[in-house]
Amino acid sequence: MKKYSHLIFLIVGGLIIGFLGSYLVELGNPKNMGVCVACFVRDISGALGLHRVAVVQYIRPEVIGFLFGSLFISLFFKEFRIRGGSSPLLRFILGFFVMIGALVFLGCPFRMVLRLANGDLNALTALFGFTFGIYLGVQALKTGFSLGKAPEQNVSNGLIMPTFMIILLIFLLTKPAFIFFSAEGPGSFAAPIAISLIAGLLVGAIGQRTRICMAGGIRDVILIKDFYMLKGYIAVFIAALLTNLALGSFNLGFANQPIAHTDHLWNFLGMALVGLASVLLGGCPLRQIILAGEGNIDSAMTVFGMMAGAAFAHNFSLAATPQGVGTNGKVAVILGFIFIGILVLAHSKSIFIRRVQDAKIGR
């Protein structure tokens, strides 16, 4: 009975998130981008001047809401726990490559579902790639790959990310001259701040309570044949689809989709890189922000790695455009796979050597 009630809550939460993800477009957010963690973090990086692409610079209040929604609800249910120190540099780099893959596709796993719910079939190619990347990640987990357990940390470490988000909110409200805001392009499209912040708080709270995660849902299906978590994202898709149909924004096809391209191979590979890195990190971009709100410093490092990846992607022309993916972006995705492959192989070898040594000691 308890598991059944949890499933109902997960599905209802998914329906709410899916509705918000589509309705925020009606309120002003970019087309097919009511919620996109990768795109929103990219916009924040631009607003802080980490990259200077003028059309994608804005402090997205939804991201601030994600973190504080998770923070407040985890405090209420006494689940806030400051922990971290588990392979922070590797998490930063994996977060970096998550962003590279996402910006080659032009969206995170959340936006992938929202794009599909709006009829963008390019997202279907990306879903296949995302699933393939998760499959590769599961194989790595089966070899014993792990970034390690996160020990308890002191309170000051847990205050870093909430303080950073408060500073961002102050910058958003006061608009100082050293913060950049797009005058045109996707960065100039935004729902009202108060509504965006409230929506972010809701998504953050629901995400914390349900543990909803696209990467985790597909991982569980592959690893243990458990469809529980995936049902939450099916609910997201259904709610977003019905909302788009009701608003008359549904547009089925590959061509002429907003902020998208039809370079199918790189849609596949970009999201495959996201799926692979997300499994190794223990969650997709939205899940990382939710975990950071619970006090997980390792996830905060991942988020900062994503910000660095966004800045790098736009400073060095790695991100895709509606015209397709440039050479720099393709090379970056390939380097991401090579880095992760070396990382997993090195870890597997170290485990093998340790087992051999333990066997010798046992004799």
Automatic annotation (TrEMBL):
Transmembrane domains' residue ranges: 7-25, 58-77, 89-114, 120-138, 159-183, 189-207, 228-253, 265-286, 298-319, 331-353
Taxonomy of the source species: Bacteria, Bacillati, Bacillota, Clostridia, Eubacteriales
Alphabetized UniProt keyword annotations: Membrane, Transmembrane, Transmembrane helix
Pfam families assigned to the protein according to its UniProt record, in alphabetical order: Sulf_transp
InterPro entries, per database record: Seleno_YedE, Sulf_transp_TsuA/YedE
Protein name, as recorded: Uncharacterized protein
Organism: Anaerobranca californiensis DSM 14826
